[in-house]
Amino acid sequence: MRLRGNAEGTLDAKGRAAVPTKFRPMFEGQQDLVLWEPQGLAQPFLMLSTGEYFDGIAEREYAQADKHDRQEILHDILGHMDEIELDSAGRFVIPDKYCAKAGFRRGEKLFFLANRAYMEIWSLEIWRQREAARQQARSLLDYTPDPGRTQEAGCRTQEETQEADA
């Protein structure tokens, strides 16, 4: 299963979301769909994929972990997922416990981001805040000098800096 792209959707009044139409063929007929709430991330979102995919993650993490951390890994991965079923319209219920942790509200827009073997599900509002913060950080790091400037690497002289700050 290879997922690419993104789409918007809505969490309905019954706590259901529909897999976006463009992604539905990847999930239809799958008997082992799992919704996972990743732990320890700065921003909340959910992940949707097959149980086989998430079992593979758990097995790799477990094998690489120190023996004292193995139980925590199982708690963090397997303990925060639920099997789901798609109805005939491609909808699935997002349990309230996950909605609360991911910041989803009924009637709110969701953002679905394909990520190869799984799909991330974000609150559209949180996703937009995240992207705005990323753009701002990039703009601070990616200073492109004005091609008409004569100073090396586009740096301002002390006088230009003082004029700009005034």
Structure keywords:
single chain; 166 residues; alpha+beta; Chemotaxis protein chec; six-stranded antiparallel sheet; two-stranded antiparallel sheet
Commentary on this structure:
By secondary structure, this protein is of the alpha+beta class. The protein has a single domain (6-124), classed as 3-Layer(aba) Sandwich (Chemotaxis protein chec), CATH 3.40.1550. It is 36% helix and 22% strand. It contains six helices and eight strands. It has helices at 24-27, 51-64, 70-78, 96-102, 124-141, 158-165, and strands at 6-10, 16-18, 33-36, 46-50, 81-84, 91-93, 109-115, 118-123. The strands form two sheets. A six-stranded antiparallel β-sheet has the order 1-7-8-4-3-5. The chain has a two-stranded antiparallel sheet with strand order 2-6. Strand 7 (109-115) and strand 8 form a beta hairpin. The longest helix has 18 residues, at 124-141. The radius of gyration is 22 Å and the shape is globular. The mean pLDDT is 81.
